[in-house]
Amino acid sequence: MNGLRCYGVSSTKTFTLVSLFLLPLSLCLCLANAAFDLNTIPFNDGFSHLFGEGNLVRSPDGKAARLLLDRFTGSGFISTRHYQHGFFSARIKLPAEYTAGICVAFYTSNADVFEKTHDELDFEFLGNVEGKPWRFQTNLYGNGSTSRGREERYRLWFDPTKEFHRYSILWTANIIIFYIDEVPIREIVRNEEMGIDFPSKPMSLYATIWDASNWATSGGKYKVNYKYAPFVAEFKDLVLDGCPLDPIDQVPAAIACADKDTELQSKDFNFITPERRSAMRKFRQHYMYYSYCYDTLRYPVPPPECVIVPSEKQRFKDTGRLKFGGSHRRQSRRRRHTRVNRPISTDDQLDM
């Protein structure tokens, strides 16, 4: 039997499957084997400044970067190339203390090329008042399907301001997996009914920090307090493991990227082992507090890619909305995608 390494316990200790049941849940999101075998690249080799004059700070060795938000501007960076499928990843440390109203986003998108038919895959970290934990959400759009938001929202089993953790997006022709460290937290498997809503065009990788006071914390109740500025998000050990492709290239992606797609499908991160699936199930049962698949107010009939898990459905009950120390007000609003303020689409604001 393979040993399992538990994050938050010790990088040198291993535990058998039997011993997992004796540990607190936060220590049991464990995975078989070692960390993914990844090829990281220096920041300067794959990324460029996006916005926020002076608020992108590269490390002296050119391998990492910090994004700052102050009262004048946020900031962001973008990959210098578009990719047709890939594994996109970074180790990130989020701002501490009072972070209400802040959004730190790590995502893939092609809205700069396909304004009305863009694809997108998101990690969006939502700040909170001091003493309350960061929350985050994942989302996806395909072919401009911004009217069909596919948000899920979660808590974390660790403090993301204390140490770096790896956040990753795997995107292939048939599957999308969001990872934290080596824990898969969300899986979307392509099916025919999903049609053009599955992302299909080359995307760039972005990272941004910006003022989302109007929606990010308790539906806009708590704003960014610049007394605590500058707010700093740190990024290092970046991964761009995909097929570089010009988004308007006439060569079919299936032909141009056939070899890279085969390579991606053979990598460790393309497979959710039984141990990883168990960790994903534990995470979703205990740390996910919203999923569009169970939101009967927005989607009386779940979208076709939804896999209804009975234990999750029972937990979300009739409406699909859980309360965590706050009121739920239905505040559906559309936020236009821009490169400077990178919002999400229509979303029911959920308080925690």
From TrEMBL:
InterPro entries per UniProt: Beta-glucanase-like, Beta-glucanase/XTH, ConA-like_dom_sf, XET_C, XTH
Native source organism of the sequence: Ziziphus jujuba
Gene3D superfamilies: 2.60.120.200
Superkingdom assignment: Eukaryota
GH16 domain segment(s): 34-235
Pfam family, one: Glyco_hydro_16
Biased composition (Polar residues): 343-352
Protein family (similarity comment): Belongs to the glycosyl hydrolase 16 family.
EC assignment: 2.4.1.207
Its biological purpose: Catalyzes xyloglucan endohydrolysis (XEH) and/or endotransglycosylation (XET). Cleaves and religates xyloglucan polymers, an essential constituent of the primary cell wall, and thereby participates in cell wall construction of growing tissues.
Official protein name in the record: Xyloglucan endotransglucosylase/hydrolase
Annotated spans, Disordered: 319-352
Sequence ranges of Basic residues compositional bias: 326-340
Signal sequence, start to end: 1-34
UniProt keywords, alphabetically: Apoplast, Cell wall, Cell wall biogenesis/degradation, Disulfide bond, Glycosidase, Hydrolase, Secreted, Signal, Transferase
PROSITE patterns (alphabetical): GH16_2 (PS51762)
UniProt subcellular location: Secreted, Cell wall; Secreted, Extracellular space, Apoplast
Post-translational modification: Contains at least one intrachain disulfide bond essential for its enzymatic activity.
